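Project outcomes to date are best conveyed with an example. Our students and postdoctoral researchers have been running inverse folding experiments weekly, and each run begins with a structure described purely in C-alpha cells. The record below, which covers 264 residues, was selected by the lab manager from last quarter's runs and is presented without edits.
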C-alpha cells in the first residue's frame, strides 16, 4: 500500500462490539404491528348505509358510489357487495333510512276541517314532511323517482298514509292507488324544485317564463292572456297544499277500474 493511504481507526472494542451496539440501539422507524392498530368496525348493512348518508350530506348523492364508500370504510369495494347489490339498491336503502325522519302532525297541531275531521291536514302535513326531507338532500329526490324502497321505514310511511285515508272514509281500493299517486307527486315536486335551485340560470329562466306568459298575443292565446295574472301566482307553500287537496278530492271521488287493485 502507498505510504499516504490511511485507514479509519477501529472503534473501541473492535468491529464485533460496534455491531452489537447498533443491534441494541432502539429503532425509531420500526414497522407498527397490526395488533397495535385500532380494529376496524365490522362491516354491516346498517353501517354501510350510515356511511353513505354521511358522504351524501358532505359531498352530494352523486359521490355516493361503491368505490367512494369503500374508501370511507377503509375496505375494498368487493366487500360491500356482500351487503348491498349495487348503487341503485344503496340509494334505495339511503332513502328508506331517511324516511324514518318523516313526521305526522298530531291532531292538536292541525285545524279541523268543516266536517270536524283533521285527517286531511295531517296527511298533507305528512307529505310536506316527506317533501322537505327530499329538499334537504339535493339529488335524492331524483333518485327517489326511480328507487323502489321496501324497508321498514317505507312501510311505516305507507301504513300511516293508509290509516289517515281510512280515517277520512276513503274507499280501500282508492286509498291503495292513491298512496302511490300522492308520493309520486311529492317526489316530483321535490325533484323539480331542487333541480331549479341548483341551476345557475334559474332566475333568468323564471323571468323568461313570466315575460312569455304576460306577453302572449291575445288573439292567438286568449285564455292564457286572461289567466296571466293567476298562472304564476301564489306562494310555493300555498300551491303545494292546494295540489294535495285537489289530489285527495280526486282520490276520494274517482272509482278504481274493475281490474284493480289486486286482492292478492
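After processing, the design step wrote out the following sequence:
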Amino acid at each position: 500500500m502507498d505510504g499516504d493511504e490511511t485507514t479509519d481507526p477501529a472503534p473501541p472494542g473492535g468491529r464485533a462490539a460496534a455491531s452489537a451496539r447498533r443491534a441494541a440501539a432502539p429503532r425509531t422507524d420500526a414497522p407498527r404491528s397490526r395488533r397495535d392498530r385500532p380494529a376496524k368496525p365490522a362491516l354491516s348493512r346498517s353501517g354501510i348505509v350510515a356511511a353513505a348518508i354521511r358522504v351524501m350530506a358532505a359531498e352530494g348523492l352523486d359521490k355516493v358510489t361503491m368505490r367512494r364508500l369503500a374508501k370511507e370504510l377503509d375496505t375494498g369495494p368487493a366487500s360491500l357487495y356482500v351487503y348491498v347489490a349495487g348503487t341503485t339498491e344503496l340509494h334505495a336503502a339511503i332513502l328508506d333510512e331517511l324516511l324514518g325522519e318523516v313526521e305526522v302532525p298530531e291532531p292538536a297541531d292541525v285545524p279541523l276541517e268543516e266536517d270536524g275531521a283533521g285527517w286531511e291536514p295531517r296527511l298533507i302535513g305528512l307529505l310536506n314532511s316527506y317533501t322537505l326531507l327530499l329538499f334537504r338532500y339535493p339529488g335524492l329526490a331524483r333518485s327517489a323517482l326511480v328507487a323502489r324502497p321496501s324497508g321498514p321505514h317505507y312501510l311505516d310511511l305507507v301504513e300511516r298514509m293508509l290509516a289517515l285515508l281510512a280515517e277520512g272514509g276513503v274507499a280501500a281500493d282508492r286509498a291503495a292507488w292513491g298512496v302511490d299517486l300522492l308520493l309520486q307527486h311529492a317526489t316530483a315536486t321535490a325533484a323539480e324544485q331542487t333541480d331549479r335551485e341548483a341551476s345557475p340560470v334559474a332566475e333568468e329562466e323564471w323571468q323568461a317564463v313570466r315575460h312569455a306568459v304576460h306577453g302572449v298575443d291575445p288573439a292567438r292565446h286568449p285564455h292564457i292572456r286572461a289567466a296571466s295574472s293567476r298562472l304564476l301566482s301564489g306562494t310555493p307553500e300555498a300551491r303545494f297544499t292546494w295540489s294535495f287537496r285537489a289530489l285527495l278530492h280526486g282520490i276520494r271521488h274517482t272509482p278504481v277500474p274493475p281490474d284493480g287493485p289486486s286482492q292478492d
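DSSP finds twelve helices and no strands in the chain. The two ends are 104 Å apart (CA to CA). The training component of this project remains on track.
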